[in-house]
Amino acid sequence: MTTAATVSEVRRRFGRTQALDGATFEIGTGVTGLLGPNGAGKTTLLRILATVAAPDSGAVSVFGRDPSVAGQRVEIRRRLGYLPQDPGFQRGFSVFEFIDYVAILKEMTDRHQRHAEVRRVIEAVDLTSVSGKRVRALSGGMRRRVALAASLLGEPQFLVLDEPTAGLDPEQRLRFRELVSRAGEGRAVLLSTHQTEDVAALCQDVVVLDKGRVLFQGTPSDLSAVAAGRVWLADERVGSAELVWRTGEGRFRHLGTPPNRAELVEPTLEDGYLLLVGRFGEEAAA
Amino acid sequence: MSAVLESHVTERQASGATWLAILQLGLREGRRMVLSPVVLLVLGFMALMGGVNVAPQLTDPSLPSRSEAYDLIFFIFALYTGLIFYIACHLVASSARRTKAEGQLQASPLSSRARSAGLCVGVVIGPGLVAVVGMVTLALLGNDITWVYGSQQPVGIAELVQLALTVIGAGMFAVMCATWLRFPGSLPLGLVILVFGTILMSDAERAPINTWPWFAPYIASPDWIDDAWTLMGSQAWHAVYLAGLCALAFCAVMLREREGRARWLVISAGVVAVTAVAGAVQL
Question: pLDDT, tens digit, for every residue of A4-49?
Fold first, then answer.
């Protein structure tokens, strides 16, 4: 496995809020999922890795280069694709014009090659039929795909995606998985999401962040294993469980310490994540 | 994890690509400025109103007389084009901030400074080209016309260059405002400064006598203004002086970013010196 980026003891504070509190991990080739509750510091971390923001302290290295040095930062950006959490679009641009504009900013100066690349990424996100339409006239999901297409320009070696599947319909999410899976072949993709099923389906590595700290880094099956022996089904709600919800079949799925003779079931990645984040919350409160 | 992922892009390819990208960005931004709805609507409206005004005075109803056309184009450029392009250029320069598109753009290899440079190139290529076309038209029309105000000759080449520079200067000022005043309302604030500053400084009776000649001593041909001040000095040097002011606005845009500011301070000091010399020589 090849290292694309390393984050070491990174801290970042916004006023009284400590967004990142000594986060440390490595990102290799393939797709890495970044999970965490709201306010965990995921977006801040992604902005730092995308060289858009700088940490207060700690070290960040992308492709062995230091983003705090201007020349090296440009080198990183030449190999980077970034989809922000809430992408904006200038007024008046059509889908093609916007992506072409971003392509110029990515130093694609050969007009014919650039236009071919713009058409390729538009096709990749299935927007060819609306490429001449104004971006602002599109639905939220389509606009997100426009931004995703822009981030895919030039087949970046490191793709940083902040909640890319928010607002996408199920068919587009599956298409997105195919796209990201292909992007992660021989390259690095960091995928921040709340969709644990996307992580389970796509990622070779998972990082769980909470309160600005890395709680976990490992494979999706490692994360699922966190909940091994702690997930059970019952016909009634058991009060001692940490989390309980009613499934589609009408039974109750419990997370936590099981009672005797509980009907244990195979844990999912989501179970592991929920237990991990829940336990950390209790420890932090204590 | 052992090796570090490497890129196929060579340093030399990347460096050349940056300059070319700034130029291409300038072309794109220049087109956005010229095709701004503000420009199309207001200039179109003015041309229409001017045509309606001129039409009754025509001896030949099919074509305006050369002096009437000259008069119309001259006043549109002298009084309004700079202001219109100020608004258009500001809207383009601030569009990424206003639409919250900066997040994605900031992660691109072209730095904020390079993108600002692209905007300035856009001002020269877009509004600048419009101004040059207007001035060339005036120069062609001005040949052998009977001037409406009875002067012996229309404005000279140096004055036409000055007019073009005021349009470019307004655009540069707009980019400077959008770059430094990054808040809603910076467009009208800059417009107020531009309009009232010009009115104040070009009013010889109100403005301090020592500052007035630096702002508007030779904005029109000596035949136009019956004032001893305007009969002295050099039109050509005033054009150089205005070019210096445009360059200073560009330097101010470049100084917005902290990195590499020392180098741009040195360059700016040089431009200030040249502009000051031109300003003194023009008097």
Answer: 999 999 999 999 999 999 999 999 999 999 999 999 999 999 999 9
Token look-up 């076309």 returns B133
Instruction: Kindly report the number of other CB atoms within 10 A of residue B230's CB atom.
Output: 20
Q: Which of A92, A190, A137 is nearest to B107 (CA)?
A: A190
Alpha-carbon distance of B232 to A84, in angstroms, equals 59
Number of Cβ within 10 Å of residue A49's Cβ equals 25
Structure pTM? 0.86
CA A221 to chain centre: 18
Of B21, B32, B107, the CB nearest to A104: B21
Residues of chain A with C-beta less than 8 angstroms from the C-beta of B14: 74-75, 78, 107
pLDDT average, residue stretch B95-108: 91
Contact B100, B108 (CB under 8 A): no
**Mutate: best of A107, A118, A217, partner B, most B CBs <10 A:** A107
The first and second tokens of residue A93, run together, are: 């641009």
Q: What is the DSSP string of B48-67?
A: HHHHHHHGGG-SSTTS--HH
Inter-chain touch B260–A4, beta carbons under 8 Å? no
Amino acid at B79: L
Q: How far is A60 from chain B (nearest CA, A)?
A: 14
Instruction: Tell me how far apart the alpha carbons of residues A103 and A107 are, in angstroms, rounded to a whole number.
Output: 7
**Measured between alpha carbons, how far is A80 from A151 in angstroms, rounded to an integer?**
8
- pLDDT tens column, B41-72: 998 888 788 777 766 665 665 566 677 778 88
Confidence of residue A120 (pLDDT cuts 50, 70, 90): very high
User: pLDDT tens digits, residue range B164-188?
Assistant: 999 999 999 999 999 999 999 999 9
Rounded distance, CA B66 to CA A24, Å?
Answer: 74
Sheet architecture: strand order including A188-192 = A80-83, A158-162, A188-192, A30-35, A205-210, A213-218
State the sign of the Cα–Cα–Cα–Cα dihedral A98, A104, A107, A109: positive
Nearest CB partner across the interface for B103, out of A52, A80, A107: A52
Residue B143's pLDDT is what? Answer: 67
- ipTM of this complex: 0.84
| Residue boundaries of the structural domains of chain A | 1-79+156-219, 89-149, 224-285
Packing angle between helix B11-34 and helix B82-93, nearest 10 degrees?
Answer: 130
Closest Cα partner for B143 from B93, B206, B60, B70? Answer: B70
Judge contact between A161 and A42, C-beta under 8 A: no
| pLDDT given for residue A281 in this prediction | 46
β-sheet with A252-255: strand ranges across: A243-246, A252-255, A231-234, A263-264
Name residue A211's amino acid: K
Instruction: Tell me how far apart the alpha carbons of residues A25 and A5 are, in angstroms, rounded to a whole number.
Output: 9
A179 within 8 A of A202, measured Cβ to Cβ: no
Helix (H, G, I), strand (E, B) or coil at B130: helix
* Topology, domain A1-79+156-219: Rossmann fold (3.40.50)
Q: Can you tell me which residue has the tokens 């072949």?
A: A185
